[in-house]
């Protein structure tokens, strides 16, 4: 095993943009957020089928108790994140789509009483036992994708995984949750990686960190050198360029190969896992701890940006108040970063598994102009696409032509929007185009 910082010379560095990094909370240590008086838990916090409630109004629950079961292979259970009483099975707004979804509201008893956890030695567990622990803990991709981790760890036999790419790029402006996790919880991340390498019999891993995080790079390199990881693990300093943290961009930058259109990293023998997901895998496998909390960066116009360890279901407003409250000039709150984040309809929106950041900001309403065919969107696209053609075809309703321009390869990163002088919300057109194409395919 060795470590090195790889200069990506000789490999094709994907295109992208350089928005101001604004990592306001980069030097702020992770703090515990107080437990909420009530937790609002949507049952759709992951890609796939929503979980199905298994509790009813009035039930007493402990932290870590399953309150909703996975309802298929591509699904994940939801656990109580505070102890108390189930106050209501309600319809709540999804922080991801804004649409109404089923949810469970728990009222706290103030005791923070946990279920009994069952620790284990990860090395003494079979592959099936590890996968069961990951699945039962409700772990999903915590970089924002929220794909159930047990599914990613169960590739079909014909897709053998040769290398794991640990995603510590954190390329979105403002967000520092993963950076702090790499500095403060290095050991948990590497133990999670070790388990994944053993489960998949992988001998090669790369820990990808943007070069503007020198402390995290140094910390990881030192920890890797001192660890007993089963294979060759490299800490790779990738260019600080948005969207370096997108799965397909990382695969291209590190392995020098492109994931085929409509495909997954496993199609080129790679598995990409976010650092927070690896820490959660360690918690689940070694400690028997379900996923009930995560680190969230609360930042933007707040007076004291922070990285907070937050139980799911906590209202964003409670966190914003810990960081100085909502300043008068702010009129928008986003979950995630400014490039791909999702504007929330209420400051009471609950933190869920995929929420890595609460960004308090001023809304940025721009007038859309006509395309001037400058080509800047093409230059900025990390997937070598022609974004202007999507705008053109969607405006004309010529959805069938979108496939000719490989629209399904778009990762919706927004780099094209950032660079567009005509303020065209290109990603909105792309989303419409993808939806319409899918409808046509279903007919
Ligand atoms: S960047 Fe905007 S204006 Fe320029 S070609 Fe692309 S869509 Fe048109
Ligand atoms: S077309 Fe898609 S992948 Fe390319 S820059 Fe725009 S949003 Fe990103």
In short:
This protein is an alpha/beta fold. It is built from 12 helices and 17 strands. It has helices at about 125-135, 150, 175-185, 185-200, 215-225, 245-255, 275-285, 315-320, 375-380, 385-395, 415-420, 425-440, and strands spanning about 30, 40, 50-55, 60, 65-70, 80, 85-95, 100-110, 165-170, 205-210, 230-240, 270-275, 295-300, 305-310, 330-335, 340-345, 355-360.
Radius of gyration based on Cα positions: 21 Å
At CATH level 3, the topology of the domain at 122-287 is Rossmann fold
Give the H and E element order: EEEEEEEEHHEHHEHEHEHEEHEEEHHHH
Distance between the termini: 52 Å
Please mark out the parts with pLDDT under 50 across 5 or more consecutive residues, or reply none. Answer: 1-11
Keywords:
12 helices; 6-stranded mixed β-sheet; single chain; 443 residues; 26% helix; binds iron/sulfur cluster; alpha/beta; 17 strands; 4-stranded antiparallel β-sheet; Rossmann fold
Structural overview:
This protein has helices at about 125-135, 150, 175-185, 185-200, 215-225, 245-255, 275-285, 315-320, 375-380, 385-395, 415-420, 425-440, and strands at about 30, 40, 50-55, 60, 65-70, 80, 85-95, 100-110, 165-170, 205-210, 230-240, 270-275, 295-300, 305-310, 330-335, 340-345, 355-360. The chain is an alpha/beta fold and about 450 residues long. Among the domains are: about 120-285, NADH-ubiquinone oxidoreductase 51kDa subunit (Rossmann fold), CATH 3.40.50.11540; about 375-440, no CATH class. Strands 1-14-13-17-15-16 form a 6-stranded mixed sheet. Strands 2-8-7-4 form a 4-stranded antiparallel sheet, with no helix packed on it. A 4-stranded parallel sheet has the order 11-10-9-12, with helices on both faces. Helix 5 links the parallel strand 10 (about 205-210) and strand 11. Helix 3 runs parallel beside helix 5 (about 215-225), helix 4 crosses helix 7 and helix 10 (about 385-395) crosses helix 12 (about 425-440). The termini are far apart. The model is unreliable at about 1-10 (pLDDT under 50). One iron/sulfur cluster binds near residues 377 and 419. The site of one iron/sulfur cluster has 16 residues, from helix 9 and helix 10.
